[in-house]
Specification:
alpha+beta; 4-stranded antiparallel β-sheet; 4 strands; Double Stranded RNA Binding Domain
Length: 136
């Protein structure tokens, strides 16, 4: 699941870096020594924020339109791209084992092709979540 959230980048007073906040994710703030570093740190902070909500069974906030974000002088608005599947695979702390029933012909296909049923289910549910959130 890929998500886009606008973020506001505020330069440090001494010009040595940026604070980044994600207005749609309350309390999601980070910083970096450069704009590139702040983008990386903001993406990591936002991904962690969203993953915590998903693991707790909460809905995630819909992203605001980037054009609706109000900024002060010298602030920059940029979109952060969150790859939640990759982030969850690397940092996700919760996994739940589920037993499912499928038709025999599907099981035969899975075994013959060495397809990962878990991966197919994760990707399908991830796509469903993304599409559901887009339609809200």
């Amino acid at each position: 699941m890929k998500l886009l959230y606008p973020a506001v980048f505020s330069p440090f007073d001494d010009g040595s870096g940026y604070t980044v906040r994600v207005p749609d994710l309350p309390g999601c703030v980070s910083e970096g020594d450069s704009l590139a570093d702040a983008i990386i740190m903001g993406t990591d902070a936002a991904s962690g924020w969203v993953l915590d909500e998903l693991e707790d069974g909460n809905d995630i906030p819909k992203a605001s339109d980037i054009n609706d974000i109000k900024v002060e002088k010298n602030e920059i608005v940029n979109l952060l791209v969150l790859d939640m599947d990759a982030y969850a695979e690397k940092y996700g702390g919760k996994a739940v084992r589920k037993n499912i029933t499928i038709p025999s012909y599907m099981n035969t296909y899975i075994e013959k092709t060495n397809l990962s049923l878990s991966k197919v289910v994760r990707e399908t549910i991830s796509e469903y979540i993304t599409n559901r959130d887009v339609q809200k």
